[in-house]
Please model this.
Amino acid sequence: MIISLAAYFIAMLGIGLYAYKQSTADVSGYMLGGRSLSPAVAALSAGASDMSGWLLMGLPGAMYLFGLSKVWIAIGLVLGAWANYFLVAPRLRVYTEKANDSITIPDYFANRFADNKNILRVISAIVIIVFFTLYTSSGVVAGGKLFENSFQMSYETGLYVTTGVVVLYTLFGGFLAVSLTDFVQGCIMFISLLAVPIVTYMMLEQPVLDTLANASYDLLLSAPKESEVHSLNMLDWFAGGSTIAIISAMAWGLGYFGQPHIIVRFMSVRSVKDMPSMRRIGMSWMTLSAIGAVLTGLFGAAYMIENQMLIDDKETIFLVLSELIFHPLIAGFLLAAILAAIMSTISSQLLVCSSSLTEDFYKIYLNRTASQTELVLVGRISVLLVALFAIYLAYDRDSSILDLVSNAWAGFGAAFGPLVLLSLYWKRMNLQGAISGMVVGAGTVLIWIYAPITINGESLSSIIYEIIPGFILATIAIITVSLSTAPPNKEITTLFDEVEREL
Model:
């Protein structure tokens, strides 16, 4: 297994070196790859950076514990990604290029609304840095768990090894390195998410449906308190779930409209004419990968029941199956798939944070006349600093990967989702509305998660997923404030009309 992983690490670093020589001379090349990605690379890069360690660990773990009642998350995500490709991708690609060649999401917001005082730019950059640091730490946690469970290394060593390799190729190769490694990592993830459930199914002796319909949770769960909660039919899509719970799970799909590390891929594809190809490739990859993750959790549960085995950390079911069923060389490849998922997302998030720190703070407030070389250097230093802080947060080894991702996903979805959609489709939207929507969306999510408010003894986030109230209230704030303040000036509306004509 170590040989397979070593080969994988060398390949990723080699891609980083190649990208370093190709596209890091200026900020546009370092941060956006010069808007030159092919549809296949852009699609798999978007998918791999989206489907982080939670796809191979968090989602299978949820399916293992709760059965098909958690499949609504996967369904919501697939529908959300499909809508994102249709509603956001083409318009954002055209708009960001026409809006003074915007290369970051805060840059686009500032140019779209003529934010001369940089209020919107700074607020959006703060939102990106805060929520992406949480999101990045979820990937680092997954890396620590991988090395601890599979290679008997300490959890802390796993944090540094995982982050170290990502930082090296991101530091030097920039966006092109991240995108090319994402493409390779996406292929590895795709093969692994099909291979593990198929082979696990072939290893089962009893009919899998009968096993799951009559699951003995004493065999699945090691903690008595869990067995009291989960005595449910694993094949029941509605088991223990109210209508609100199902809506909350599917609401994950709303988050796609506001994820900077995903929608920035739409900005980097070489032409808007490539969007249909990018959409077909991306959605095929995502749909099959999500099905594979769901079946990994279900078939893994059946395998554990049949063999009367227990695992302490349910989010490691993919790891356990890889080591139990496959030859060590193949298992090493499968474990590399988890690293691929983890590293692809960490690298994307590090680069987005780096671009915000460089373009939206350093260049605006510290050195407006900074050379391209200086800005690239600042970007690299920012990558390192954000990575170190993410490691610090990940030292809490009890952190749930799915919970960390859930909080960050909701934050971006509520703060940026309504803003991105309305900015692309509503000419009357103005700067005041944009600022209000972003503050209300992000604030609602933070209150929903951290405020000491309960209803019948339950926290707000346990009743309904925080992205729903955040998204709704942000949309209302944008529309209300925009209509009650002065309309945008002629320059902004003219730009909007130019984009409409090109599309």
